[in-house]
Amino acid sequence: MRSSRSVDPRAYVYWHQKEQFQLEQDTSGYWTMFAVESGRFTYKIGREEGDAGFADLVVCPPHTAFHRRTLTPLTFHFVQFIWEIEPGEEEAKRWTGKITIADTERLASTYRYLRSMSRVGLHDPASGPMRHLLNDLLLSAELERSLQQDEAREGADPLMHQARLWLLAHAFEPFAMSELSAALGLSPVQLTRKFRAAYGHTPSAYVTELRISRACRLLEETTLTLEAIAQRCGYENGFYLSRVFRSRMGTVPSAYRKLHRV
């Protein structure tokens, strides 16, 4: 699922085979991320400490001391950013420290594009392509974390795994939630309770997330009208989509498109 929390990059530097850090401790007013291509370094952020290497993202929140020391020559992407929608305290904790990306093929591709743009001087973090690539790093982390949580939850309730697959298949077309509850032999109340216990939110909220994620992608990648996007996302008209979109994303679709078009 697409991340609803995009970032606004403020600084980007590609470092190749850096022998040591000029500062082994630093504090920034922005979120800071080291995305490692090769080599290793140790870090300490608050109470968390460890070492990181290829496929690791190390993220430090603003106004927090970031201790680091190279262990071997380090090649990495240095990024400073702010969240477009600032995460709450608990979510900020989940984004702090080391995040390991399992999909190294996708990660290597993102790194390759970042290197290429840096070499030809197209590394302005505010540019559309750079913004897209830097957001992709965090999107990869969020997707993998979400899938891992889903797998753990699905093992506890196979019926709700079936419900989630049904919702994925029908999310972008008009349907009544009672169709799903009847297919599973549950009452609508039982379905809502069991689904929330398995996934942490209601079936309706899950469908809304899927639809708004698709709407975001279509706004970014196409020139479709709002009415056409609404139809492709399972909403009856553009007015209703706009209302749900603003409630979920904090902005109207037209403003989102203008901000995110690459």
From TrEMBL:
GO function terms (MF aspect): DNA-binding transcription factor activity; sequence-specific DNA binding
Instruction: Show the taxonomic lineage.
Output: Bacteria, Bacillati, Bacillota, Bacilli, Bacillales
This one is known as Helix-turn-helix transcriptional regulator
Give me the segments passing through the membrane: none
Keyword Transcription regulation listed? The answer is: yes
A Pfam family annotated for this chain is HTH_18
Known SMART domains for this protein? HTH_ARAC
Q: Which InterPro entries match?
A: Homeodomain-like_sf, HTH_AraC
Which keywords describe this protein according to UniProt? Answer: DNA-binding, Transcription, Transcription regulation
Native organism is: Paenibacillus cremeus
Q: Where is the HTH araC/xylS-type domain?
A: 161-259
Coiled coil regions in record:
none
Query: What PANTHER family does this protein map onto?
Result: ARAC-FAMILY TRANSCRIPTIONAL REGULATOR (PTHR43280), HTH-TYPE TRANSCRIPTIONAL REGULATOR EXSA (PTHR43280:SF2)
State whether keyword DNA-binding applies.
Answer: yes
